[in-house]
Design brief:
- There is one protein chain.
- The chain has about 325 residues and is of the alpha+beta class.
- It contains 13 helices and four strands.
- Strands 1-2-3-4 form a four-stranded antiparallel sheet.
- Helix 4 packs across helix 11.
- The protein starts with a helix and ends in an 8-residue tail after the last helix.
């Protein structure tokens, strides 16, 4: 794999939390390279359009992590488990889609090896920690030398959080200018439209799906913004003053922050008005970047993925769950 291809893959890995739904009990999905992954409560199916024009799929039963390990049934822990499984499935779908993109149906089939995916995941995690944990903390510490008021515990964490959110917004905007990423965002829009069409109860057709919005409240984009707000509150409760200990705390507390954010999103889904609606609204606005209007062909791929997931769900005796 070339360095350029590795960077392309790493960029898509960085977007996994943005593109995936954090909720494990609802029908939802995620955009991948030239395709869409869809999940039902106990099933998974990813559909990808190959360069030759045909659509290939990969599907399998996926038990809820809370059914395999009881601890993930409890608040906070259920978010950690669900998000961990979501990222694992996202990486699996991303590898399948990347391999499909390399398969032209004529030459010898190429595949991305597991060790390349592992290296990509490690690089992406290190980049995430550097960009969203180290850089905001470092810049805030520098700012504190010029403006002593920033050294105050509350103001320090507010400034740190504001820089983190600004970096996230700039990163999303810049990466959205990348032609390949724009294609992913179009499939992201297709995924949302198809989920909306399914939830409406009407026949799952391209025409019906295209009538719906590309902005969905259960999107990972909304979740990530909630994570960043919750992080400001949690970090303000950490008593450490030194740079090193603050940085360590920001890394160690990531699972807790993700679990708390999951609970807030879950609560907001059940109470769609008031303060919780205001908390998740910025995520819907941000989907103007992370989702783009899809073509009929892209919607067709998303429908193919959802139908595959639901067929597998029904074969296991499961029922669809609609939010």
């Amino acid at each position: 794999m070339s360095i350029r291809s590795f960077i392309h893959l790493a960029a898509r890995t960085q977007l996994l939390p943005v593109l995936a739904s954090p909720e494990e009990i609802l029908v939802g999905g995620q955009a991948v390279m030239e395709g869409v992954m869809m999940r039902a409560p106990h099933s998974y199916c990813v559909a990808v359009r190959r360069p030759a024009g045909d659509v290939v799929t990969d599907e399998m039963p996926v038990p809820k992590v809370s059914e395999k390990h009881k601890i993930f049934k409890y608040p906070i822990f259920r978010g950690m488990g669900s998000l961990g499984q979501s990222m694992w499935l996202g990486m699996k779908a991303l590898r399948f889609s990347a391999n499909a993109a390399l398969d032209d149906g004529e030459s010898k089939k190429q595949e991305i090896s597991p060790w390349i995916m592992t290296l990509n995941l490690a690089f992406s995690l290190a980049f995430f920690i550097f960009l969203y944990k180290f850089v905001p903390l470092y810049l805030t510490s520098l700012l504190g030398k010029w403006a002593p008021a920033v050294k105050g515990h509350i103001l320090f964490n507010l400034t740190d959080g504001a820089i983190r959110i600004a970096i996230f917004l700039v990163f999303l905007y810049l990466i959205s200018l990348w032609k390949d990423i724009k294609r992913v965002f179009e499939y992201h829009g297709a995924e949302h439209k198809v989920v909306f069409a399914f939830e409406s109860g009407k026949p799952l057709t391209i025409e019906n799906a295209q009538r719906h919005s590309t902005f969905h409240p259960r999107c990972g984009t909304s979740f990530l913004l909630v994570v960043m707000v919750v992080a400001i509150i949690v970090y303000a409760m950490v008593p450490y003053e030194g740079f090193f200990m603050k940085f360590v705390a920001r890394v160690v507390l990531l699972p807790l922050i993700a679990g708390l954010s999951y609970e807030l999103i879950r609560f907001a889904a059940k109470h769609r008005g008031g303060v919780m609606a205001a908390l998740t609204a910025p995520g819907l606005w941000l989907q103007r970047i992370t989702t783009q209007p899809p073509s009929d062909e892209q919607v067709a791929v998303a429908i193919h993925a959802l139908e595959g997931a639901m067929a597998l769900e029904q074969s296991q005796g499961g029922q669809s769950v609609i939010a």
